[in-house]
Amino acid sequence: MTVSGNGVSGGASYGIYVNTLSGITVSGNTVSNTTSYGINVAGSSNITVSGNNVSGAGEHVSGSTKYGIKLADTSGSVVSGNVSHDNSEAGIFLDADTNGVQVTGNTTTGNARGYSRAAPGIDVRGYSNTIDRNVSHHNEDSGLQFYTGSHDNLVVDNLSYYNGDHGIDDLNAPNQRIIGNTVWWNYTAGINLEGTSTGGTVENNVSVDNGYNVSPCITPPAGQDDCTDETRTRSNIRVDSNSTSGTTVDYNLTWLNNTSPPAVVYVWGSTKYTSLSAFRTTGQGAHDTYADPQFVSTGSNFHLTAGSPAIDSANSGVSGQTSTDLQGNGRVDVQGTPNSGTGPRTYDDRGAYEFQP
Prior knowledge:
Layout: E1 2-4, E2 7-9, E3 16-19, E4 25-27, E5 30-32, E6 39-42, E7 48-50, E8 53-55, E9 69-72, E10 78-80, E11 83-85, E12 92-94, E13 102-104, E14 107-109, E15 122-124, E16 130-132, E17 135-137, E18 144-146, E19 154-156, E20 159-161, E21 168-171, E22 177-179, E23 182-184, E24 191-194, E25 201-203, E26 206-208, E27 237-239, E28 248-250, E29 253-255, E30 266-268, E31 271-273, H1 276-279, E32 289-290, E33 295-297, E34 301-304
């Protein structure tokens, strides 16, 4: 059964509701300004939610906030190619009983409670899900969030930028694979593992200019915190004291254009590191690079330009690394660029985009 091509606006409950079903496709619908969730899938399996535009779910009032797209107790399903924006809670939400779901190729932006910084772009509480090739930006809280109950998820080839908290945030979420993402200009630590987020793998990412809550003040997105807030975390990659056990950080590219004190590149345990060489004393980051990634246009086009140190330098053998990038382009061995990567392909690029000569 397919539910497609509908316009739902101003509904007093859910925009579209799939309950205890299998084999349903919800595609190409426009859902806006619903009192409850825009699209709600519950107790189901083998569901496809694709190509929908969802906005305005819930209200900016405590107790009335709602997700744009919600999956609860759902398995073996796909959420792809949706634009979920300007909702009063996360654009896409997977609850603790949701597993084996692929969330791919979606855009989540502008999601905000409005009265309290809490709404992320994508919020995952389940396990064994794949979150790949999504673009999440200008959300009130983190771009991609994995909280208590979440574990063993693959987070790969995503772009997360200009969000009000972290680019990728893991709280009490163990055994996460965070591979080949591009994370730029998020308010606090770009890639964050805290609480009991042990056993994580953080490799092949480009994490640049995060933790911009520094002086001199750089104006954050509308509605976000003042950028002189000294209580918020900083750094491009942060692994707190409760999450270092079994965690690996390697083959990432980090960089800070704004080096005004305190310029923190990494946090490992309770120690802040202002240089890659200092961070390496922890035994981590042996193949990390500290250099300008040379984006086409910083802040608007995160593709790599020729000569970028991210080119042909990733670990293609790490679990979760893909043979294509955020846009589905294959890996390319760039002529004239030494292959400094490792694995079955020594020419994969770091970050979400593969350079295409």
